């Protein structure tokens, strides 16, 4: 533990022994004391409490200046803008406090008290705890925790600028503190180095809430500007009310100051400061200090954006970016690499170069011959916001062209995000040009609309991104809003004529935009807003907007289709079904691009399977290669189909476009997990956890840490996840138990499951827990107990008529019988029972169709020596182009002694396949090679098997592999390595069944390898009887 | 004879020496001195609602006097050590009591688990596993620390009283000792 941890623990222990009440929740959140220590301290506190230990605090042996309410006021600590601060003593609760008294007449007392009560709602270790606000004897005071330490300003003066790593840590803590403040509906208004204290334990505390009043209620009086001007956001200086975003601006200034000692914008007076802001006189952080890591600089600069909407939208967002900056490998400012795919340093990416290398040659720009065009938001000179629809309508119309590639608004946002630029609410000409340059777009279209009295003139400028030169201007007139869509059709036609390179291109797909969207501008307006909300994953809002659009025009097919998509995300199956039906009924009116999505979603809803859906999307890729949703879906489906190379390829594409896309990060982490690539698994699990705090980010990260060798950190993460998400307790328990086994602490692992079993009454869950526990026992070599657990699991499943669960349990048991105990009779008895279950299933897409089931039967038949039956099963069940085709081929070759062919068939899947599948495959391969007298090859295969060992994928094949590896080493002439293998197995199984055939065999072989007494004479001796060493074969 | 309330005119060590020399008054005096503390302690650490077990008061008193009778074999250097010693005797005595109760004829044979008599209030609050872990970790502390914890946490001595019982120079010194000991417990407990 670090020094700080020791201090924190001691501090808490002191509180317990003094008898001071401890806020266990806050202590738990502050992360400096481990959960284990905390829980033990609580136990000790309980003992004290039950034994009736009275509090005994160090008495403040000092003079009281005066009493105020229940407090004894002792010493003046200082003065602030609002009043004076004193140190006080609360005799009732026996604790030291700080009291801020407001100057008489400074503000409305009732108001201050109310705000103080609001502040008291915030309980967070990073925010000074306010105990209360009251009025006594005519004085209004707010009393709070007495925080002792040094302000950041003090530390800066004493020690000079901070190291970036430390500034990042402080920034993260302050983001969390601000998140708590904003979450309570408040704004701090005075974030600065003098208002942040670092306690001796390292705790960072945001102080001086004198200025922290409700943003709404105080309104913002330019004269009564509160806060320190140099930290104030420009809009606040100009008189606008403070907001969470202006707090974040202040935090940006604070971080800037910490690392550089200076300020971004300065002025000798308030007026000078305002002017400096107006003129944009900002010293960039990279100029103030050159050696700062790029990601950190990016975070600070975004916080300092003068336009509030360009800043971080929330403290949580800024925190996530700082976390990512913290975890990024340390790099000094790098030269930017030009070029389409390597256009910019991703804001959240860890290893952009790595991605670029993998992704070389994959175009992020248009296909050759298909110019990429971008469209800005319409410049709307008309007072009616519905005319904003012009851009969206134009884009939809142009997307119909198969000779052009239109950059969607969502992709434009991704480009901006990747370029460290703040998210914009509006894409104007300048931003549009910049975006075009980054992605090598051919043209930028800038629409504008003006007019009055219902007569509109729509203009379209076609600009060359290099230089912004205008190539062409088109115009069309619309008499009234109903004529706007036809006017757009006209413009679209003319634009296509100018831009499509092939003059003979089919003018198919030139349908009126009102037909493929809606004739109602207001309906389109709602749809447009919905799309922007979808992009931000604000789905309930998107749903509402789409419903409004549909209410205005029930034949708006595109809106129905998108609503089906949103409802699928929201897991509202009835809505999804209803909207899909409506969209399909109107499918002619769905624009081409969306139609692909609709069909793919429809295929899934019809249970046609992942492959059917994916092939629709692959078809779509030919026409719309950069559609992010499509690319993600392909990656997603591929990962579920275990086609890992494809999954990786597509998921990486998506992440390159949108590095913060949490689901893509999650899927990529899972893929590497299933492949057994632990280093990559950890890398992506970290990135996912940085991007999202969903439940499974805890188990992914926890398991990744365990797999990478840091079981302690992994288990702590998993335990945190289990506490935060009690509804997933069973899963977390399984992970923790597995990790314990991995650590060699099998008893603790079993305890976890036992605890779960004791506290779970739901039969399906109990069945699953028993199955999980059996896996733990298998790892230990306690096969009898494992089988007992599996039998119980199957029994419970049978009782509740759950054939899937029963089948899985019985298949596991069958494998264990045969692989583990050489008992083919028992194994096939279990399989026969599974076969009976098969007939009870009536719908498709069941466990029995899947490789895990019938593939298991297939392997067992091979292992039992019945190649013919196995081959017949394979023939019946699979078609050649399935991903497990190579597995079947390899197994069949291996079983026939054709080791070389088996190896060839297996080579690709051994590279990319799931670890759980590769372990049995390598076993069969190794066995083939050994039997064919190729011990060297066998050693290679089996070494690979053993290296796939992961805490999540151990089964009986692994143990057999270890034994076989020993044998292979022996045949290859290496007794020492053989002994190592055998003793590893014996070690793994020391708590297991001693009479397992493989256990007995391993011990026997190990003993035979031990050197015995040397009694024999060297060969060639002429003496009489020669005593041979006792261990000769 | 009247006995003054425990204003430590004579130190425990002195009194113990006199008890060993056969001074019955000293014995009574010591008993008075510690009875209140041990009773209070007993309410938390001893099983409640015992039927055949003598109630807490009698148990403590009897045990205390017995301990004082056999004090010849014990050489406490300070009050803290003596109290820790008494506490151990009391806890053992309770376990013995229970076993005796359990072995009475006519009863269903019991294991050592307190089936009839229920756990003490502390055990009820934190559970047997935690309590055992606490006792184990407590046993591994240095004697002074162990006594400090017992005196403060279990017997509710003020820090000043702990200082006197352990021969520490000040209440703050005792405060530091006990806090450190508690932190060490938090590190060492295996639960």
Description:
The complex is a heterodimer of chains A (1033) and B (191). By secondary structure, chain A is of the alpha+beta class. In chain A, helix 31 (711-724) runs antiparallel to helix 32 (729-743). The longest helix of chain A is centred in the N-terminal third of the chain and has 20 residues, at 164-183. The two termini of chain A are 54 Å apart. The relative contact order of chain A is 0.03. Chain B is mostly helical and 191 residues long. Chain B has 2 domains: 7-118, Rna Polymerase Sigma Factor, Chain: A (Orthogonal Bundle); 121-191, Arc Repressor Mutant, subunit A, CATH 1.10.10. Chain B contains 9 helices and no strands. Chain B is globular. Chains A and B meet through helix 1 and helix 3 of A and helix 2, helix 5, helix 7 and helix 9 of B.
Uncertain regions spanning at least 5 consecutive residues of chain A:
210-224, 330-368, 1014-1033
Instruction: Give the helix/strand class of chain A.
Output: alpha+beta
- Radius of gyration of chain B, whole Å: 17 Å
Shape-level CATH architecture of the largest domain in chain B: Orthogonal Bundle
> In whole angstroms, how far apart are the ends of chain A?
54 Å
Portion in strands of chain A: 5-15%
Oligomerization status of the protein chains: heterodimer
State the largest interface: A-B, 25 and 31 residues
Task: Describe the structure in brief.
Chain A has about 1050 residues and is α+β, with helices and mostly antiparallel strands.
């Amino acid at each position: 533990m670090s020094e700080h941890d020791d201090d924190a623990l001691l501090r808490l222990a002191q509180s317990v022994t003094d008898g001071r009440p401890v806020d266990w929740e806050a202590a738990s959140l502050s992360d400096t004391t481990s959960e284990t220590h905390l829980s033990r301290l609580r136990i000790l506190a309980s003992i004290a409490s039950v034994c009736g230990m009275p509090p005994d605090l160090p008495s403040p042996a000092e003079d009281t200046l005066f009493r105020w309410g229940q407090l004894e006021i002792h010493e003046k600590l200082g003065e602030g803008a609002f009043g004076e601060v004193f140190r006080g003593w609360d005799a009732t609760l026996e604790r030291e406090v700080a009291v801020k008294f407001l100057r008489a007449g400074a503000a409305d007392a009732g108001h201050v008290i109310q705000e103080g009560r609001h502040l008291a709602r915030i309980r967070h270790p990073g925010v000074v705890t306010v105990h209360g606000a009251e009025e006594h004897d005519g004085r209004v005071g707010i009393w709070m925790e007495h925080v002792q330490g040094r302000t950041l300003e003090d530390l800066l003066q004493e020690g000079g600028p901070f190291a970036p790593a430390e500034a990042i840590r402080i920034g993260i803590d302050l983001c969390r503190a601000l998140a708590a403040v904003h979450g309570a509906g408040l704004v701090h208004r005075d974030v600065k180095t003098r208002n942040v204290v670092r306690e001796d334990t390292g705790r960072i505390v945001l102080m001086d809430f004198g200025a922290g009043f409700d943003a709404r209620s105080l309104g913002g009086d330019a004269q009564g500007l509160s806060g320190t001007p140099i930290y104030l956001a420009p809009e606040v200086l100009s008189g606008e009310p403070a907001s969470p975003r202006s707090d974040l601006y202040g935090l940006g200034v604070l971080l800037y100051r910490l690392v550089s000692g200076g300020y971004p914008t300065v002025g000798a007076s308030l007026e000078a400061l305002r002017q400096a802001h107006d003129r944009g006189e900002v010293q960039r952080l990279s100029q103030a200090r050159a050696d700062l890591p790029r990601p950190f600089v990016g975070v600070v600069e975004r916080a300092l954006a003068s336009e509030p909407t360009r800043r971080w939208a929330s403290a949580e967002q800024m925190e996530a970016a700082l976390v990512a900056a913290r975890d990024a490998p340390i790099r000094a400012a790098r030269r930017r690499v030009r070029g389409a795919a390597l256009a910019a340093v991703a804001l959240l990416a860890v290893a952009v170069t790595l991605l670029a290398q993998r992704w070389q040659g994959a175009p992020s720009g248009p296909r050759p011959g298909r110019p990429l065009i971008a469209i800005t938001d319409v410049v709307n000179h008309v007072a009616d916001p519905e005319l904003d629809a012009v851009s969206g309508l134009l884009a939809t119309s142009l997307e119909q062209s198969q000779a052009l590639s239109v950059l969607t608004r969502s992709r434009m946002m991704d480009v901006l995000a990747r370029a460290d630029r703040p998210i914009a609410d509006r894409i104007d000409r300048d931003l549009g040009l910049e975006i075009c340059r980054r992605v090598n777009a051919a043209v930028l279209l800038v629409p504008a609309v003006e007019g009055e009295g219902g007569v509109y003139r729509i203009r379209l400028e076609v600009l060359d991104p290099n230089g912004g030169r205008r190539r062409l201007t088109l115009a069309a007139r619309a008499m009234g809003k109903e004529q706007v869509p036809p006017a757009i059709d006209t413009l679209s036609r003319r634009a296509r004529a100018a831009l499509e390179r092939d003059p003979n291109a089919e003018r198919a797909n030139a349908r009126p935009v009102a037909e493929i969207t809606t004739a109602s501008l207001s309906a389109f307006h709602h749809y447009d807003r919905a799309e922007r909300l979808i992009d931000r994953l604000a789905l309930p809002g998107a749903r509402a907007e789409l419903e409004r659009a549909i209410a205005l025009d029930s034949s708006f097919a595109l809106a129905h289709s998108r609503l089906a998509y949103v409802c699928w995300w929201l897991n509202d199956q009835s809505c999804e079904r209803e909207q899909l039906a409506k969209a399909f009924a109107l499918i002619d009116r769905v624009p081409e691009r969306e139609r692909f999505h609709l069909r793919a979603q429809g295929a899934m809803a019809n249970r046609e399977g992942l492959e059917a859906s994916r092939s629709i999307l692959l078809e779509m890729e030919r026409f719309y290669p950069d559609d992010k949703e499509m690319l993600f879906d392909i990656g997603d489906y591929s990962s579920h189909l275990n086609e890992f190379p494809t999954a990786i390829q597509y998921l990486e594409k998506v992440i390159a476009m949108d590095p913060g896309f949490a689901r893509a990060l999650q899927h990529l982490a899972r893929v590497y997990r299933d492949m057994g690539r632990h280093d990559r698994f950890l890398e992506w699990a970290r990135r996912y956890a940085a991007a999202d705090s969903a439940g499974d980010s805890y188990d992914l990260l926890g398991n990744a840490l365990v797999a990478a060798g840091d079981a302690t950190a992994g288990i702590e993460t998993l335990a945190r996840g289990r506490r935060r998400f009690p509804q997933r307790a069973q899963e977390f328990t399984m992970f923790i138990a597995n990790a314990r086994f991995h650590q060699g602490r099998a008893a603790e692992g079993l305890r976890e499951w036992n605890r779960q079993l004791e506290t779970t009454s739901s039969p399906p869950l109990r069945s699953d827990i028993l199955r999980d526990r059996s896996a733990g026992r298998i790892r230990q070599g306690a096969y009898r107990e494992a089988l007992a657990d599996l039998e119980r699991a199957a029994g419970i499943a049978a009782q509740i008529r759950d054939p899937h669960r029963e089948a899985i349990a019985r298949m596991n048991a069958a494998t264990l019988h045969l692989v583990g105990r050489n008992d083919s009779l028992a194994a096939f008895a279990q399989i026969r029972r599974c076969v009976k279950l098969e007939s009870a299933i009536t719908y498709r897409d069941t466990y029995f169709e899947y490789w895990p089931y019938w593939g298991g039967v297939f392997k067992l038949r091979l292992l039992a020596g019945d190649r013919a039956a196995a081959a017949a099963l394979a023939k019946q069940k699979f078609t050649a182009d399935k991903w497990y085709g190579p597995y079947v081929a390899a197994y069949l070759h291996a079983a026939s002694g054709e080791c070389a062919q088996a190896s060839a068939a297996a080579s690709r899947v051994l590279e990319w396949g799931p670890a759980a599948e590769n372990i049995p495959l390598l076993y069969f391969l190794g066995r083939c090679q050994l039997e064919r007298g190729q011990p060297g090859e066998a050693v290679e295969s089996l070494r690979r098997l053993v290296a796939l060992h992961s805490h999540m994928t151990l089964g009986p094949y692994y143990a057999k592999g270890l034994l076989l590896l020993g044998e292979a080493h022996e045949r290859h002439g290496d007794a020492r390595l053989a002994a190592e293998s055998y003793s590893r197995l014996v070690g793994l199984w020391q708590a297991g069944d001693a009479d397992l055939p493989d256990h007995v065999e391993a011990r026997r072989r190990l003993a035979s390898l031990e050197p015995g007494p040397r009694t024999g004479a060297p060969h060639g001796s002429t003496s009489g009887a020669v005593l041979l060493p006792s261990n000769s074969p | 004879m009247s006995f003054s309330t425990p204003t430590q005119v004579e130190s425990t060590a002195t009194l113990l020496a006199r008890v060993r020399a056969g001074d019955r008054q000293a014995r009574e005096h010591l008993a008075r001195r510690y009875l209140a503390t041990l009773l209070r302690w007993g309410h938390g650490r001893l099983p409640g609602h015992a039927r055949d077990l003598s109630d807490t008061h009698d148990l403590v008193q009897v045990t205390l006097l017995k301990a004082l009778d056999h004090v010849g074999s014990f050489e406490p250097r300070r009050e803290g050590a003596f109290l820790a010693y008494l506490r151990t005797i009391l806890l053992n005595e309770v376990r013995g009591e229970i076993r005796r109760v359990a072995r009475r004829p006519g009863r269903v044979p019991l294991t050592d688990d307190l089936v009839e008599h229920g756990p003490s209030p502390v055990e009820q609050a934190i559970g047997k596993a935690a309590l055992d872990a606490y006792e184990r970790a407590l046993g591994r502390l240095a004697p002074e620390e162990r006594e400090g914890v017992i005196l403060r946490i279990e017997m509710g001595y003020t820090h000043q009283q702990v200082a006197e019982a352990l021969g520490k120079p000040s209440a703050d010194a005792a405060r530091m000792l006990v806090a450190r000991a508690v932190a060490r417990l938090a590190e060492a407990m295996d639960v």
